[in-house]
Request: fold
Amino acid sequence: MESALLIKEYRAGVMECAHYGHISITDENGKVVYSAGDPHFRAFTRSSAKPFQAIPGIRAGIAGHYNLTAQEIAIMSSSHRSEPMHIQVLEQLESKIGLGEERLICAPSYPLNEESRNQWLRAQGEKRRILHNCSGKHLGILAYTQMKQADLGSYAEPEHPVQREILETMAYMAGIEEKEIKLGTDGCGFPVFSLPLSALSNAYLKLACPDLIEDLSTRSAVETITGAMNEYPLMVGGTQRVDSVLLEDSNIVAKGGFKGVFGFALKKERLGITFKVLDGSEEEWAFIAQSILEQIGYSNRKTIERLAEVYPPDIRNDAGKVVGRADSEFKLHSPEESV
Reply:
């Protein structure tokens, strides 16, 4: 199935960029109810898998074992930008676990947030592993590895028992067999999952509606993780990040991933939603999410307005002058309309 035109960008009334991709929206029965492009397009989850990667450790009891706060749990699902609030929580988490950041296999980095990066450089700060935007995930999984008394040095290897449990959990949440998930290596060094968008949508719906999860210990872990994400949305992404903005709405669970993949789900409406921008861009996420919510008639207008406020469609030059705009181009189709 061909990809759908999702967003067009115009400069001086002339189309400058066109972003194509796929959207998949599923219901509590696992059925695709709305789509654009191919709802079963296979995509790598990248960081959109982080809430699922946190499940095994929380399910096993690391929150109680290390006396973790909700902020520390939220940052385990984070693609943080190393703002001061993130660094503080990360260092708290590191201290509670009792493992130095040299244990992290993710590369030493500078903060991704521009203001934080500038402050860090002005203070002559050097790259640190804890500043990597995946460090919260790594610390959480190291915490579980240590509690489980498994090998710490190989914690990121696909055959490590913790990584095997993560894969099993991802397949369980997506409602597919493990063999249907193809493994690659993520930017941070962890195994990363390739699976159909429809399966990822089903997994996200279970994050939002944990009553769909039969295993009670997994259900409880999901409630803990998503509760922390909604309570502390800025821990999950950061200032003006799309997933953090959506998480301000207690009816939504959301998490973005690198190279254009995004997942969110609606609790009351019981819909799981994922999309992939094929050129890997994330600048279009807010416009796509806003259009999806508008097209399905989402009742909380404040969330749609908040997206438009933080991410206006205007394209501005370096001096802040409006020089163009971005427009949503796709129309969601039901399966009947696609026949």
